[in-house]
Specification:
- By secondary structure, this protein is α+β, with helices and mostly antiparallel strands.
- The chain has one domain: STM4215-like, CATH 3.30.2000.
- 23% of the residues lie in helices and 34% in strands.
- Helix 1 crosses helix 2.
Length: 131
Amino acid sequence: MSGIVWPDVEAAAITYLTAALAARPEAVTTGVRVSRAQVDGTARQVIVRDDGGPRIGDVRATARIGVRVLAATWADCADLSALVVALIGAWPDGRPVVAVRALTRGYPVADDSGVPERYLTAELVVRGTTL
C-alpha cells in the first residue's frame, strides 16, 4: 500500500458549494456564506464539517460530511437546504469527489437561538493522490 495524500474535503466542499450557489438564479442563494464555522450576523450560511471515513481502495476513501444550513426564515432555510442537497448530489466530477453514496434530505434542527437551521449528511467517495 502506497502513501496517499487525501484531499481537504471541507475546503473542496466550500469551494464547490460557493461557486454552485453563486451560479444559481434563485433569490435564496444571494449572499450565502459557505464556510467551516458559523458567523454571527450572516443570515444565510452553509457550514461544512468533515466527519472522516475509511480508505476503500488504492486511492479512494469515504468522506462523510455534515452540513448545517441557516437562514433568516424557515422557508428560506428549507429552500436553501433543498438546493444544497441537490448540488451535493450533482457534485461527482472526480476532483476530488468520484461518487455520492448516501445523501440525506435537510431536516429541521431546533436550538435555543431560534435561528432556522436544517442539517444534512452525505457520504462521498473521494480520490486521493499517490505520493
